[in-house]
């Protein structure tokens, strides 16, 4: 009996020491990736207009150039290039397009505005009588009422998209103190005109009406 047990144990040991190898299961998931072609956004179309340059403002977050068209409507364009005084009142071929800008500050948000992309000077008669800051000052200084009563004349407001005039303050001086004498608004379109402005009630009147009221 002992002779039979020994071969059986050896047979069992041999089977235990040579287990069949199991094939490893690949659990990796294969993800199919589809490539999408990204088409860049097309730039906004460019517009070309004949405009008269009337004012440049370099004080804001962006520089602004102001123009009028043949109907004397105002167009404000953001510009990266300073338009100098030598272009004031000149007719220009102006190219512009809509662009996306962002305002400065914590609440910065993108917004759309019109951007100047190019210009060149054109021959031709201006849509409105050209007027510079010095011309507006001189026009007020030449008024007989100012020659005889005012000691100082200065520009207090310049044209913007909503203001089609130079506002000119006049004042008198006595014992080192300045007192406001009169405020004028010199319009250059739709027609050249000087009006008298009353800051107290924010009203205007013509020079003729003002002189009759004196």
From TrEMBL:
Top-level taxon of the source organism: Bacteria
PROSITE patterns linked to this entry: PROKAR_LIPOPROTEIN (PS51257)
Name by which UniProt lists this protein: Lipoprotein
